[in-house]
Design a protein that fits this description.
Length: 123
Amino acid sequence: MRKLVILAVLLAAISAPVLAQEAEEEGPQHTIFTKLFRGVGNVILAPFEIPVSVFNVAADTDVFIGVTAGTVAGVAAGVERAGAGALDIVTFLFPPYDKPLVTYSVGQSPATQAAVATFPREL
């Protein structure tokens, strides 16, 4: 009996890396919880779009432009992120689970990029 247990443990130790490698080749598994937690994260991160956008626009242009245009861009990005998060939370039971609605990180929204590109640095 003892030899059988040792054999089973050795077999599991040898086959575990092979099975793990097959799982890695498939890629990450997206489930309903992936979509739900992504939605909750987007709702939580939505208010942080405003100060991060203000800072990014101010760093790239001017403090006044950062406070004015950065605030507007941050509010737009925050509303977009909160709406996408709310939609993910409401529809987390329905596929697709692997396609996020918001594909950019906090402070890197297209609205922020447009605010930086709109105002020249010479002002």
